Amino acid sequence: MPKNYLFAFVVTLSITIVPLSSFSHHGWSYYKENVEKIVTIVDLKLRNPHDQLLVEDEDGKEWNLLLAPPSRNRRFGFDGSNIEVGDEIGIIGQKHTSKYEIKVHCIFKENEKIYTYRYPNGRTSYEFMRNKPNC
User: Fold this and answer.
1) Which domains, and CATH codes, for the chain?
2) Is the pLDDT of residue 88 over 50?
């Protein structure tokens, strides 16, 4: 009888853990609505798996801005040295359908573009958008 319990436990564990691990890597399918915002940087999190900026909008809402992975950002020239907490920036991106989170396509500071989301081949995320805002 104990072997049956052990077998049932292992099967149950594999049924629950394997599917949960597949959710750990996200895709961009939940980022749909195009947004343009002026925000103030509250915190910089320049680390894996994605560089992130925590920002506050004009209504006082905090947003999590997702950028490309750090190694890719550094390869294409963005290391965060040109922004700091308290800076006001403009962003163009796509808002998550249920979270205060935005996949950022472009960041502007003082009317100068300082960041563009790039894929490993160098193409920008903006190039793949159907309804392109002016980035």
Assistant:
1) 33-128 (2.40.50.140)
2) yes
What does the alpha-carbon distance between residue 11 and residue 62 come to, in Å, rounded to a whole number? 41
Mean pLDDT in residue range 15-35: 63
Closest to 120 (Cα-Cα) out of 69, 44, 47, 77: 69
- pLDDT for residue 126: 80
Q: Against a cut of 0.90, is the pTM above it?
A: no
Q: Which segments of 1-135 does DSSP mark as H helices, in order?
A: 2-22, 70-75
Does residue 4 surpass a pLDDT of 80?
no
Coil vs helix vs strand at 55: strand
Write the DSSP string, 60-123: S-EEEEE---HHHHHHTT--STT--TT-EEEEEEEEESSSSEEEEEEEEETTEEEEE-B-TTS-
Alpha carbon 2 to its chain centroid, in Å, reads: 47
Q: Using 50, 70 and 90 to split pLDDT, how confident is the model at 10? A: very low
